[in-house]
Structure to design on (257 residues):
C-alpha cells in the first residue's frame, strides 16, 4: 500500500542528506521509495527506482546492515520496510564526542607545531573552501588582496559565487581591500552580487588571457585555484615566490584597462 507522504524532509531531498553520510545512489533510491510508499516487495521497488536486480540486493543488504530497512517474509515473499535511523543517530552522537576530543587535543598544540608547510594542496569542495577561508581570514588592516580571476565559467558556479561573496564581506569587515583583474563581460554580474561591498579596484584584461584557474595574492601568500568537479587550491607561502607573483600582478595591472 502506498503512503504517498508529503514530508517536508522529502521535499528537501533526503538523498542529499543520505549521500553526505556515505550512502550510494542505489541505496538512496531504494530508501526514498520505501519512505514514500511504505512496505513493498522487491518487484515494485526495482520497477520504479530502475535499480538493476543484481545491484538491488547488494544495496538492500547494505541498508539492512545499517539499520535503515528491515524485512518480513510472508508466503515465502520478502516485504521490505523503512526503519528510523536510530543506529546512525547514535553513531553520529558518539562520533561528535570523539571529534570534540580531537579538537581539544589540537587546541593544545602550539602554534609553531601547527604551522603549515610552504606549499599545501587542498582538494574537493570542503578542502577548496577551507583553503580560501584560511587565506582570507588573515587579511585585515588595509591588507591588499590581488586577484586574477573571473572568466565566463564563473557564471555557472552559483554555489561558489555565493561562497566568494561571503568571503569578500569578511574581508571588508576586517578592513582589507582588493585589486581585481577580470574579463570585462563579468563586471556587471560581479558588482551586482557584491552590492554594498566597497573593497574593490577593478580592471579588465582580454578574455583570451583567462583560463580555468584563478590566482589570489597577498603580501604573505599565493593561492592558485581551479574550480572543477574536484576543485583544487594550492597555497604557496615561500617569500620569493609570493614576491614574484605580486610583481607579476603589478605588471599586468599597469597594462590593464
Amino acid at each position: 500500500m502506498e503512503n504517498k507522504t508529503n514530508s517536508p524532509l522529502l521535499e528537501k531531498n533526503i538523498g542529499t542528506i543520505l549521500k553526505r553520510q556515505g550512502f550510494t545512489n542505489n541505496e538512496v533510491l531504494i530508501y526514498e521509495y520505501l519512505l514514500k510508499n511504505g512496505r513493498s516487495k522487491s518487484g515494485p521497488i526495482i520497477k520504479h527506482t530502475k535499480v538493476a536486480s543484481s545491484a538491488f540486493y547488494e544495496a538492500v543488504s547494505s541498508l539492512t546492515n545499517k539499520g535503515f530497512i528491515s524485512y518480513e517474509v510472508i508466503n515465502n515473499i520478502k516485504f521490505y520496510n523503512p526503519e528510523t535511523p536510530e543506529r546512525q543517530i547514535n553513531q553520529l552522537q558518539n562520533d561528535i564526542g570523539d571529534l570534540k576530543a580531537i579538537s581539544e587535543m589540537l587546541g593544545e598544540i602550539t602554534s609553531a607545531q601547527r604551522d603549515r608547510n610552504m606549499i599545501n594542496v587542498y582538494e574537493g569542495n570542503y578542502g577548496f573552501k577551507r583553503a580560501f577561508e584560511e587565506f582570507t581570514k588573515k587579511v585585515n588592516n588595509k591588507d591588499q588582496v590581488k586577484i586574477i580571476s573571473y572568466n565566463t565559467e564563473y557564471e555557472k558556479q552559483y554555489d561558489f559565487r555565493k561562497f566568494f561573496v561571503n568571503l569578500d564581506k569578511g574581508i571588508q569587515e576586517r578592513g582589507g581591500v582588493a585589486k581585481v583583474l577580470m574579463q570585462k563581460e563579468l563586471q556587471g554580474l560581479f558588482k551586482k552580487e557584491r552590492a554594498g561591498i566597497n573593497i574593490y579596484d577593478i580592471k579588465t584584461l582580454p578574455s583570451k588571457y583567462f583560463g580555468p584557474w584563478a590566482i589570489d595574492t597577498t603580501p604573505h601568500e599565493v593561492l592558485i585555484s581551479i574550480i572543477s568537479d574536484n576543485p583544487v587550491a594550492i597555497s604557496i607561502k615561500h617569500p620569493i615566490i609570493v614576491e614574484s607573483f605580486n610583481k607579476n600582478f603589478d605588471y599586468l595591472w599597469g597594462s590593464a584597462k
